[in-house]
Amino acid sequence: MAYRVVWSPAALQDVEDIAEYIARDSSRYASAVVSKILAVARGLRQFPTRGRIVPEFADPAIRETFVYTYRLIYRVKDREVTVAAVIHGKRLLDSVRDRFGG
Asked: Which class does domain 4-95 fall in?
């Protein structure tokens, strides 16, 4: 049975910000990056635990998978995957820690 994938408003804003930033140089590449992020998120419906446990949290429910240089960070709970953040790999995770309530 497939999991339900939902996006937090903050994660949607992250993707929009990424697209705007990349589009300054290439709208085509921005579109490709966003498409890949969305495809990876859709893939979590079938394989929600494929991502690694986020080292900064050490919580098996909070996982991440990489899309190019971005970390797609999500929580698996019950039959739902909640995408909480999409951040650049060099960005400190502390800046999104509150999205997980801690």
From this structure: alpha beta
